[in-house]
Write a structure and sequence with these properties.
alpha+beta; YojJ-like (1; 275 residues; 13% strand
Amino acid sequence: MISYLYEDVSYMGFLFESIRILDVIDILLVAFLLYQIYLLIRGTVAINIFYGIFILYLAWLLVKALNMRLLGSILGQFIGLGLIALLIVFQQEIRRFLLVLGTQYFSRSKFKINTLLGFSNSRNEPEWDFEPLIRAITRLSKTKTGAIIALAKESRLRAFADTGVYLDAALSSELLETIFMKDTPLHDGAVILTKNRILAAGCVLPITESTAIPARMGMRHRAAVGMSEQSDSFVLVVSEETGRIAYANQGQLTDKVKPEELRKILSALFREIQS
């Protein structure tokens, strides 16, 4: 009896001795990566696809354990093409993951690529002036005029601006209000702003596939979330039905925002980016 206990203790000691610190770090990194992937696809139709792939993988492991060669070879073909299938099925989620990775963990750090390479020109660029935007949003909200405005952060959003009409005009509240008047040709699309300038209007933005958006939200709100998912932009929305102000940032929608609150959010967010 004592010999058996001694063997068990010695075996457990050998097991723990064989585990290195790098193995623990490896497990923690994999767990962190899986958690980040879950956060990205949570609330979207992609989560159901992820569950299906996971069940298929478990079935393949079970078939291999039971030595069912024919079914195992068929499932093995699917598993072998798994990486290509993941790239196709989760194209938007992978794009969003890389965008979040580059934005949160590198581009906002003190050691940016532009700074390291000597290309930083933040001193020469003027700071954002949000007062014309706040005035326009306030008036559009009072008149219940629908609007959607995307503010560029690090990216200049050229690909999305190509879907509309280039203006490259100085930012003014009067021009923004005129663009979103119901009788104007560009009122249905989105406006893209880059550093105190209206880059383009009448732009088409991507629609989110998230199921977490309330049913009462219209297409402008879904386009705002979709734009914030596929780019690093900050997107403002004015509801045509209620006149309420909302904003989308990094795939998250915040509703019922007051102009004073919006001013503080914009100042804090873009001050962090410019620093």
